[in-house]
Each structure stands twice: as C-alpha cells, then as structure tokens.
What we know:
This protein has helices at residues 5-21, 33-40, 44-56, 75-96, 102-115, 122-135, 140-161, 166-181, 186-198, 200-208; strands at residues 30-31, 60-62, 68-70. The protein has a three-stranded antiparallel beta sheet with strand order 1-3-2. A hairpin with a 5-residue loop joins strand 2 (60-62) and strand 3. It has two domains: 8-70, Arc Repressor Mutant, subunit A (Orthogonal Bundle), CATH 1.10.10; 75-207, Four Helix Bundle (Hemerythrin (Met), subunit A) (Up-down Bundle), CATH 1.20.120. By secondary structure, the protein is mostly helical. One of its GO terms (molecular function) is DNA-binding transcription factor activity. Keywords: DNA-binding, Transcription, Transcription regulation. Residues 6-73 form the HTH gntR-type domain.
Amino acid sequence: MHKSALTAEEEAYQFIQQQIRLGQFEPGMRLVPETIASQIDTSRMPVRSALRRLAAEGLVEIRANRSAVVRGLNREDMREVFEMRAVLEGLAIRNAVANMGPQAMRRLRGMLDLLAEDDIDWTTAHREFHEYLCSFCNQPRLLGQIAELHTVVEPYMRLWSAQPEHGLRARASHDALIEVLRTGDPQACEQAMREHVMRTVPALLAFLR
C-alpha cells in the first residue's frame, strides 16, 4: 500500500527534524533528498516538500543552487531565539498559571526529579517540562511558536547540557521558578519565566564560543 503524499511528507518532515534536534544532522551538513528518501523508503518529492517546510521554520537553508543544508546559529541568532522564547514563554505562563492546580504542581516536581537522574535524556526531559508548564495557557498558536524555538536551539542545548555540574545549576533554577509559580501571581510568574529563560544565555554562549 502506497503512502499518501501528505503522509510521506509528514514522515520526511518528522525524520529530518528529529535528526537535526538530536544533532545527527549537524549545522552546515548538506541534506540530499535522494539519500534521505532511501533512508525512510519514500520518493524525493515528499522530502523536498519537507525541506521547504523546515526552511520556513529556520532549521534548513535552501541555497541558490537548490541544495539544502542544516542551518546553524551564530551568537546573535542564539540570543535572538532566547529573547523570543523569554517573551513567548512568559506570556504563556502568565495565561497558564490560573489553570494550574495542585496536581499540575506535583507533576512538575516529579518532572524536576526526573531531570536529576543520571541516565536521563536531559534535553528532551527539559523541553517536556517547559512544554507541559506552558500547555496550561491553552493557546495552540502560541505553543506552536514556542515549540519551533525549542527545536532550533535543541542541538546546542544537547552539547551544553553535557557539561559537568550543569544538572545542579539547572535544578536550582527550576526550583526557583516553581516557587514563584506557587504564588499564582500572573505578572510575577511572567517575569520569573523571562528571567529563567534568559539566565541560560551567558553560559550557553560562553560554552559555544
């Protein structure tokens, strides 16, 4: 049974995006549609469509000769992405906090405990923590924008999170965020989230230098 064009394009999109997120497709790497198509058993056209979609999201660059490469971030790009994340996640949590009850707070605490485990995929678990927290805003477009920004920086977060002592610093920062969430004050929560996101920037930029 043949895949529909939409299904094939979505499969190609999900595959390429995941490989970029995991750092398997590195910045500057040329993405050859024929090669990718053979890896997922599809034709070139769905792969080309997926690459155009990823280019629109800033993960891939389509060059003048129609070749596609994984787009990297320079220091200015990285700061811009985190500034956008800070504003959007601050907005999300301002609108989310009224919808968060004791059960949500307990789950967030459990997710933080998971982040402290040695054998965890920290970057994925960290993203899930932020996405769960923001999800209570119930604004799908806003959440979609936040998810795209997380995807753009994820390969760099994976490298950074492997540093010694990273986990201890991250736990303290997230504990502080949860304490503010307990107040239920929308403005305080928005400000705390903005500061929390931007707190990563100096260390991440220094590491990537």
